[in-house]
Prior knowledge:
hydrolase activity, hydrolyzing O-glycosyl compounds, single chain, hydrolase, alpha+beta, TIM Barrel, Gal_mutarotase_sf_dom, glycosidase, Immunoglobulin-like, Glyco_hydro_31_TIM, seven-stranded parallel β-sheet
Amino acid sequence: xxxxFTPYLxxxxxxxxxxxxxxxxxxIDPIAENVLRFRSSFSGKIFDEDWTLIKPSxxxxxxxxxxxxxxxxxxxxxxxxxxxxxxxxxxxxxGNVLFxxxxxxxxxxxANLLKARNYRHVYGDLYKVELYLKARDNExxxxxxxxxxxxxxxxxxxxxxxxxxxxxxxxxxxxxRPDEKLYYGFxxxxxxxxxxxxxxxxxxxxxxxxxxxxxLVIYGKTPEDVxxxxxxxxxxxxxxxxxxxxxxxxxxxxxxxxxILSIAREYKRRNLPLSIxxxxxxxxxxxxxxxxxxxxxxxxxxMVEELKKLGVKVMVSIWPxxxxxxxxxxxxxxxxxLIKTEKGIPILQTFRGLTTYVDFTNPEAGxxxxxxxxxxxxxxxxxxxxxxxxxxxxxxxxxYYNVLPYHYDNIRxxxxxxxxxxxxxxxxxxxxxxxxxxxxxxxxxxxxxxxAWLGSQRFPMVMWSGDxxxxxxxxxxxxxxxxxxxxAGMVYWTTDIGGFYGGxxxxxxxxxxxxxxxxxx
Length: 521
């Protein structure tokens, strides 16, 4: 069989391996002990964007060897080898193969069916990229964020790498091969919209638009070693204050100041413990005003003071939506602080108004919103914030089927088009409020957030699982979704007790569900 290929030529560069061949550039860096980072592109250069990765200040010691047929880098107990035909494999120090690229072409004396690394030009320096790895029958796969699909072991699952209400993409996967006592992690270091497939015939990660393939491989002697190293590279969860682990009371919704005070007083009268009470959405004058409607909340300062005497802290709901009728809309448009559309009217949601979203990937937008929150909530003593709609959620179709679908390619953030950077939004949404609280000297605050991404765990936040069904099946799925979310770094995670959609208080089965959900927590 005719076998013709362009050999990959490799050299050492700043303690890394850099190779080029077939129009592609590859770089493999040791970035921490037992961790290697792979990047490749079809544009002739490797981009230094780290996203939320926290690289150690010093590179670890690594052995690099290059000869005529391969290049090798060893960092701690992990080894990567790239052969002259461009195939990449990862090994443990014991010689076990961890990951191996899947090529079905001349490299294995086959017709050209599949390449392990694929690039299809989109526009500019963006490509649709795909990475294929060999699958193993004996592997168990955990993590990846919150997918209420009913599986703890994700082997055999196909996942959308995108945030939606009840779905959160945190692309860290923990691989376990128990019969071989092998434990290793894979981080898809890319905030793009894409897919992950853990099929029988391959493991695949893809981006709809990206400048490069970018991932990390982490090796450990135990699962704990792998997760610990992942946390070191993306942020360790802080210890929340003790009161944050108490009971939180919320409903959709308390409409007035007097109503919420009456609830707290009744808890006190019955001698029931209550740590936090939540003021949900539409307590405001307009979406994007970020302030109480004085008709229903006439004296927030007195309300907060009374609740404090009762031993109850106040949390308020924040939405990142900005209505065209908001008092802040004009200024935010002029200053470029809102998410835009590539074409068409910049309206991204139609729930109770015509709204777009704050573009928290723009640092100035976060500062602007915090100043409004500081003036209208924080000054009254409110220091806890529920960051809802954190995906963000595009196009609620109330009465209009598919009016505003999830066309990510039409969404423009400060950092880039949504297909390239969309999944990083909740990280910067959370960061804006964390930075604001820190600037005021607050070190014991807590944020409740409906989405997260790699690194969100470094903030004092609890992730909540969104608007889920009120069924026993849903409860069962939440247990598994929560475990995988925690393994992806978000160790503080919770649900709506009893679910959100449906449920009849007169139905004995629903009453049983509420009891069981309380037991779950």
